[in-house]
Amino acid sequence: MSPSDQDLGLYVHIPFCRRRCHFCAFYLEIAQPAPMARFHSALIQEIALHRRQESLDGRTLQSIYFGGGTPTSLPADQLAEILTLIRSTWPTSVTAEVTVEAHPSSVTPSDLTILADAGFNRISFGAESMADKDFAAIGRVGRVHDTATAVQAARRAGFGNINLDLMYGLPGQSVQDWVHTLESLMSLAPSHISCYALTIEEGTRLAQDIRQNLALPPDDMLQIDMESAAERFLTDAGFARYEISNYAKPDYACRHNLLYWTGGQYLGLGPSAQSYLHGVRFGNMADLESYTACLNDHRLPMTDRTRLSTSERQRDALIFGLRLLRGVPRQAITAAERDHQIDVLIAKGLLDADHDRIRLTSLGRRYADTVAEQLF
Ligand code: SF4
């Protein structure tokens, strides 16, 4: 897929969770009725302002993605109402991918029915692991068997496209534990699996525990072994790895995320959401109070607005495009000495190239950003 005027997505950030996981650095608030009600009104106002300003020029949405936080912290009928409002505000393709992220331990069968009936056709569960001891180590709410219950309920509600988000390199997790998690999930027949290596973000509880010697930092070599084990296991199970962290059954690659990796355009709604439209990147305030105050004052809650130069667009296309296993066209590298630099990176085992395209090797995927910087 190449970027074109047809590639347009909408992202809605729902910034609430019941509790913050120990590794999580996303902007979010603890789910409470009063701030959730303020957010809901402000989001409706944000949609109305974008409609008035014709931010999307009447173009058709190809994907809609409700992420967070935990979108299903909001009542399912509110999520359904917001989706209906979006679809009546902007033309939406009949084949659009419409995703909602959900927490397996809090979403109910009746929520799932409401969401499927409203038009969500893809659901992404934050499963993380299938070992209870891992949940305790990362402060995650719930029990592992909630994932199976939620996936089965989602399927009964009508969801045929189900993603599971997983993490590896968790404190005390072995390669065998990780493979056991993958094995345990196969009977649930997900169509998509995302595997993220645990990273330690400043300001998180886990970073603090590591500083105080209460937890061990992730072991890079172990994470590399786990990444290889996941690739072997999931390939054998019929998944194709199409991006550094993402695996899909045929025809189930996430269309919304492909927008980000192929230079497509998207409008982000909600606190901290990012947008890229008409060559301009902008972000919303990452603070619920400022976000709602701005919208109550009939102003869009933007914090910054940058028109990307041609060179910045090319750089982004390279950094994001190289994340895809199919790589990028050779012409994406514009530096005069590119052939020399490509040869150097091939010699180091970081890149593969043929006449038309370059792509990261499995070693190169571990240093994707560094390789992209060296090519630019
Ligand atoms: S459920 Fe997800 S968004 Fe919420 S705190 Fe945990 S990792 Fe962060």
Topology:
Elements: E1 8-14, E2 16-17, E3 29-30, H1 33-52, E4 61-68, H2 76-89, E5 92-102, H3 109-118, E6 122-128, H4 132-138, H5 145-157, E7 161-168, H6 175-186, E8 192-197, H7 205-211, H8 220-236, E9 240-243, E10 246-248, H9 255-261, E11 265-269, E12 274-277, E13 280-284, H10 288-296, E14 302-307, H11 310-321, E15 328-329, H12 338-347, E16 351-353, E17 357-360, H13 362-365, H14 368-375
Parallel strand pairs: 1-4, 1-11, 2-3, 4-5, 5-6, 6-7, 7-8
Antiparallel strand pairs: 8-10, 9-10, 12-13, 13-14, 15-17, 16-17
The structure holds iron/sulfur cluster.
If you had to describe this structure to a student in words, what would you say it looks like?
The chain is α/β, with parallel strands linked by helices. The chain folds into two domains: 8-261, TIM Barrel; 310-375, Arc Repressor Mutant, subunit A (Orthogonal Bundle). The protein contains 14 helices and 17 strands. The protein has helices at 33-52, 76-89, 109-118, 132-138, 145-157, 175-186, 205-211, 220-236, 255-261, 288-296, 310-321, 338-347, 362-365, 368-375, and strands spanning 8-14, 16-17, 29-30, 61-68, 92-102, 122-128, 161-168, 192-197, 240-243, 246-248, 265-269, 274-277, 280-284, 302-307, 328-329, 351-353, 357-360. The radius of gyration is 21 Å and the shape is globular. 40% of the residues are buried.
| Cα Rg | 21 Å
Average pLDDT figure: 93
**How many domain regions?**
2
Quote the CATH topology of the largest domain.
TIM Barrel
Name the strands of the widest sheet in spatial order: 9-10-8-7-6-5-4-1-11
Output the number of helix runs.
14
Instruction: Outline the low-pLDDT stretches.
Output: none
User: Which percent band covers the strand fraction?
Assistant: 15-25%
CATH class of the largest domain: Alpha Beta
CATH architecture of the largest domain: Alpha-Beta Barrel
Looking at CATH, the homologous superfamily of the largest domain is Aldolase class I
Ends apart, CA distance between termini: 22 Å
